[in-house]
Amino acid sequence: MAWGPLLPRLRGVGALALLLVLAVLLMAYTAHQQVRQPSRRGGDQVFDARHVAEHQTRHVLFFNRVPKCGSEMLVLLLQWLQARNGFRHMRLKNTVKRYLTFDQQAALVEEIGERVQESTEPRVSFDRHVYFTNFTSYGFKMPIYLNLVRDPVEKMASRFYYARATPRPGAATPPGYTSPAPPHYTSLEECLRYQDPECTFLTGHHYDLTIPYFCGHEDFCRYIFYTCILQGIAGRVRRKT
Q1: In this predicted model, what pLDDT tens digit does every residue of 167-207 receive, in sequence order?
Q2: For residue 137, what is the DSSP state?
Q3: Quick one: which of 66, 99, 109, 108 has its CA closest to 222?
Q4: Which of 83, 108, 142, 210 has its Cβ near the most Cβ atoms within 10 Å?
Q5: Where are the membrane-spanning stretches (predicted)?
Q6: Are 158 and 68 in contact (CB under 8 A)?
Q7: Tell me: the pLDDT tens digits for 20-35?
């Protein structure tokens, strides 16, 4: 049997086999490679994205707290239960800023991912006042979201009187944050009677309502497009007060 005609075919098969081996080696290297990403806290840190992706959905709880719905009590419960139930609760800072830009959302996802990786507990929970953030937009699986809601009238009244009872003059605020003006009225009834902007809802304006905490940071989540709905809520407040 003559080997001459077979040599070109053998060379082709050998080259293909070599390419397949190189591809397998590259895939194995990529699977075990730790991704190095710049840290927003300063300097480079080793960031194992695969570790976070494997654990985030089943072992990470994110309580993105709707304000004035009893969220502080639930945070206390999480803190009390963490040792007994084998998980760790972490409080995220900068709760004043609820609406985040795309880059700020990426920073939030990165911070949570880093803390998950650094935690010695297999299960972790977080809390912060922040609108719903889609982790999959940044290459991560979604955490288990948790929240509390409240009757909108009760929530509005609670926020109105909370702002007067706890002014928090020394509270830390992020750069660029402007403190609201001192309140004009001491009672919700008076505020509604004079249709003060603090308790009046208008189409096309942004209000820190409940919907963005379940919808997201987009404009259609944050702005009021149906004045009649919000005026109906205000009418309920008048009837109850």
Answers
A1: 554 455 556 656 666 667 888 888 888 888 888 777 777 77
A2: G
A3: 99
A4: 108
A5: 12-31
A6: yes
A7: 545 544 444 444 443 3
The answer to whether 112 touches 144, Cβ cutoff 8 Å, is no
Residue span(s) of the chain under CATH 3.40.50.300 come to: 37-146
Q: Which residue has the tokens 């955490």?
A: 143
pTM here?
A: 0.64
Helices and strands in the chain, H and E counts: 9, 6
- Classify residue 121 by its DSSP letter: S
Cα R_g (the chain), whole angstroms: 26
Strands 35-38 and 44-47: antiparallel
Alpha-carbon distance 42 to 145, whole Å? 29
Q: Which residue, 239, 135, 235, is CA-closest to 195?
A: 235
- Given a contact cutoff of 8 angstroms between Cβ atoms, the answer to whether 164 and 183 are in contact is yes
Count other Cβ atoms within 10 Å, centred on residue 178: 6
What is the third-level CATH fold of 37-146?
A: Rossmann fold (3.40.50)
